[in-house]
Amino acid sequence: MVADPSTSDYTNLVTSNGYEPAMFDPGVTLNRATKARIADGINEILKAIGSENLDPQGTERTPLRVAEMFDELLSGYSIDPEQLLNGALFDVEYDQMVVVKSIEYYSLCEHHLLPFYGYAHVGYLPDKKVVGLSKIPRIVDMFARRLQVQERMTQEIASFLNTLIEPRGVGVVVEGTHMCTVMRGVRKQDPRMITSAMMGSLLDNPATRDEFMEHLRNPTL
Ligand SMILES: Nc1nc2c(ncn2[C@@H]2O[C@H](COP(=O)(O)OP(=O)(O)OP(=O)(O)O)[C@@H](O)[C@H]2O)c(=O)[nH]1
Ligand SMILES: [Zn+2]
Questions:
Q1: What is the value of pTM for the model shown?
Q2: 111, 114, 154: which to mutate for ligand 1, most atoms within 8 A of CB?
Q3: Nearest to 123 by CA among 166, 174, 169
Q4: Using CA atoms, how far apart are residues 1 and 33, in angstroms rounded to an integer?
Q5: What digits encode the pLDDT tens for the residues 28-75?
Q6: 149 Cβ closer than 6 Å to some ligand 1 atom
Q7: pLDDT tens digits, 164-173
């Protein structure tokens, strides 16, 4: 993710439109040099659209804003899992299913850089270990705030939890509305995609999987 400032390409890019690294905040994920490259790219897009079609005052700082925006929207690349978890793994005797549902997420599709968003639902069957409740949405965000396809994001959340908690089973169901199929392309108003990743007993045992799915179906729970 981080640009190499020593390459001549980089030097040409930052100087061509006048966006110097120093103009940017220090950065959450992207360093200042990378943000300057992004700003230069956005400037090229604006130039291609043509100054006659743009409001010069409104768009003057747009390249800088977009670069800062990507820094925020791609922050999932720079999360340190250790720091995210902050030791919140607890030994317990509890051995029934844990479900955390309706976790909202916002991601960007890697094909068009347009948002996709919706809800992620997570369930696991612990084996003497549970994770702090708030850490599950944090884990969802860590994978959502990257360039993604929904299937990979779903799998990554499940695999991460599986390695972390070593449960008897884990399941992740994600619902997503993709703006690249809503506002362009096929232009369908509400095409929702559902993806799932089941592991361990949630994959092997139909009754366990049904229990999880029943939790997702029940609107009052
Ligand atoms: N499976 C999957 N496909 C996705 C996701 N996000 C976007 N896509 C699809 O990725 C595909 C890219 O297809 P292309 O034909 O290369 O791109 P395109 O010409 O813009 O395609 P259209 O969207 O059909 O106009 C499209 O079918 C998108 O709907 C995702 O998370 N998962
Ligand atoms: Zn897309």
A1: 0.91
A2: 111
A3: 169
A4: 11
A5: 889 998 999 999 999 999 999 999 999 999 999 999 999 999 999 999
A6: yes
A7: 999 999 999 9
